[in-house]
TrEMBL record, chain A:
Membrane-crossing segments per the record: none
Major place of residence: membrane
Keywords for the protein's UniProt record, in alphabetical order: ATP-binding, Cell membrane, Membrane, Nucleotide-binding, Repeat, Sugar transport, Translocase, Transport
One GO MF term attached to the UniProt entry: ATP binding
The keyword Zinc-finger appears for this protein: no
Record carries keyword Kinase: no
Protein name per its UniProtKB record: Ribose import ATP-binding protein RbsA
UniProtKB/TrEMBL annotation, chain B:
CDD domains: TM_PBP1_transp_AraH_like (cd06579)
Keywords, in A-Z order: Cell membrane, Membrane, Transmembrane, Transmembrane helix
Protein name, UniProt field: Ribose ABC transporter
NAD as UniProt keyword: no
Molecular function as annotated in GO: transmembrane transporter activity
The species this protein was found in: Planosporangium flavigriseum
Region of interest called Disordered, as start-end residue ranges on this chain: 1-20
Localisation per UniProt entry: Cell membrane
Amino acid sequence: MVASSTPQPLLRMEGITKSFGNVQVLHGVDLEVGRGEVLGLLGENGAGKSTLLNILNGVLQRDTGAIHLDGEPVEFAGPKQAQDAGLAFIHQELSVLPYLTVAENIFIGRLPRRKGAPWLVDWAACYRQAGEILERLAVKIDPRTIVGRLGTAEQELVEIAKALSMNARIITMDEPTASLTEAEIERLFTLMRALKADGVSVLYVSHRLHEVAEICDRATILRDGKIVNTVDAKTTSSHTLATMMVGRELSELFPKTEHERGRETLRVSNLSTVKLKDVSLSAHQGEILGIAGLVGSGRTELARAIFGADPITAGEIFVEGEKVTVDSPGTAIRHGIGLVPEDRKLQGAVLSMSNAHNISLACMSKVSRLGQLDRGAEKQAAKKLVADLQVFPPRAEQETGRLSGGNQQKVVLAKWLFAGSKILIVDEPTRGVDVGARAAIHGLLNDLAGQGATIIIISSDLPEVMGMSDRILVMHEGRISGELARKDFSEEAIVMYASGLEPIKEGSNA
Amino acid sequence: MSTLTETPASPREASKPKAGRRLPIQGQQLALVVLIALLAGGFASQSPEFLSTGSIENLLRSASMYGIVGLGLTIVIISTGSLGGIDLSVGSMMALGGAIGAGLLGTAFSAANPVKLPAVVAVLIALVVTGVLGSISGLLIARLKLAPFAVTLGMMSVARGLTYLMIAWAIGSANTAGITFSDPLFDWFGLTNYGPIPAITVLFVVLAALIAFMLKATPFGRSLFVLGGNADNARLAGINVRRTIVIVFAISGLLAGLGGLILTGRLSSATPLAATGYELDVIMVAVIGGTSLAGGRGSILGTVLAAIMVSEINTGLDMMNVESFYQYLIKGTILVLAVVLDKVYQARSSRKLAAASA
């Protein structure tokens, strides 16, 4: 552990715990930020970073623990109280109002009023004060510019200016560089150094480990809702950070069954979309192909592109060796491709419909004759599938929205079984699903592969993707940044590839 | 009547096992039946003629006309409600349908009559034109992702303009008198009875049954409910969203054209200002019938009952000699109340869903 740079830290969080329902997300987290310090907060998706930051900024309430600011205990009933206390939160998704000017954005909700006529805005003062703040940041933006005309990086600077105008002492930045170019990142870092010099502290969240070394003083690593360690960011290698982020044993057993890998069923070559750059891959009969990567790395976009849900700008898709044009999900379904989407409630299942209607949805022609649905046959088929997949309650006419998350997911899977998909892409198949249903879904995917289907599994849950897959492709910023065969699987390697780095060869094959 | 009951939510019933026999209609529809009876009693107590054969026949004609147009609007709202789906052009489309049908007959009294077509052909052309205009609205909404409100408001004006042009061309002058004519086919629309039942009421029931069957028992009908619930969901299930939107707006246009031919038959004339403001009545028919403006939920039986109720209100208020400005006030209030009820229903069902999946 590295001690904080000042004897009295500006911010101290102690023993923070938080549960959502039965799930404990934070287990007694301690965190300190010194005055004028940039503290990196690292952790995998789901480690509890967002929850911690939301608690700090008054968005969520902690269950137990204490927050001290300048040595004084503080309570934030809401984001407004946190703001008043000098905390600012810059989200990954910027919250600027694109049709207003820079100055209006900075002072929104507290525009300066005219003396003697407080119902009128003092625009002169508004633009002058905004100009002063921007000057302090050495930012050359006219406060009268409409924010929508600025680039993402400049919009982020506007958010920082807004934070400073509220006299923020601690600015939380959640992945601020996610959509910035190299030059813009440099500019942001210059600004952050200026903030430090002014005594402003920054809590910096990023998945880009090399940035942490460049800008942060110390780094705190969070894993499974607990603090693993706090280290000197300058002297700790990216590899060590990655190991600390993931360093856990496979805590759950995955009943990986070995299948004969058959012929190639899907080949994607040089596929590009708005979010994907030159992605190539192939998948085979009986194979479970894992796709790992951070949220936003293009995993979901890849699934949607193969499924015809997003337009393709370049590249080719081959199914069973034949070039196909997948221009809509309907075409993909006819080529035997199925997609279990990430958002089960809005994209996977139609919650207001019955299980039977959901199951037949992607292939209603199978239970239709002369353009008329045979509802008896539809119900019979659904009954068999809900029984086979152990959906509870096992009723074809049950409204899907009334099932638990895991059972809803089984219904979505049943839809593709009914449609007879040969290539099934599952995106976060067990997110928000209880342990029992997880095992059942994993078992089902294994069975399908055993029967000769091709399964592509996308997951943020590294134990899951490593436990299930025969091979893993790792994505980073819209590209495939690495490929691992089962014998080479390691969380460190995946995290390094996912961060855009090369894993360190340790001669493990030797 | 139970074959007309259409709702995708049969599981809602299944999830609530009931002891004993289920009524053939439930909830909102039962409430509509009760309201229709109460209104009939109320109007009859004010003016006893309300229950005369002639009055009931008139009411059925009016209900059939609004109902036929309402069927189209019902499927528009069911399938595109989540995109803000509405068709404001139905009133003008009625006027246009009637003007084309009457204008092509060449039998207008003391007019130019530039063409003389058989009535069947004239009617078919009217239906094709209004169907095509509806599909143009659908294309703009589906392809360019424009707001249905704006597109159909534009179409409302375009169709009204075409109505003026059609009538001016048919009578050879640009006055607003319209086309007055006589024709056996139009008499069928406006005057013919089978026993005590108007011919168009039979037509209405047949069309309602067909659309109810389509919604309940065909893949296309099923896809309308999925699309109305969530367009993204529908697309990922392989449904051709664009084509579906074009088809429902084409059907809405065509049924509005048919409603306009009926109106023209009843009046034996087509005027440029015909059916002005009728979109309000037609939207009332769909919404009071239980079609959710949020999409994904609706009922043809509800639309049929609401058509009867709305016509009952129109006829009853007319008979009581209520001034038209009060009529507007009353109808507007009823429409807003129906939308409030829909909102309450949505809030309740989403709470139930949240509670069930928690």
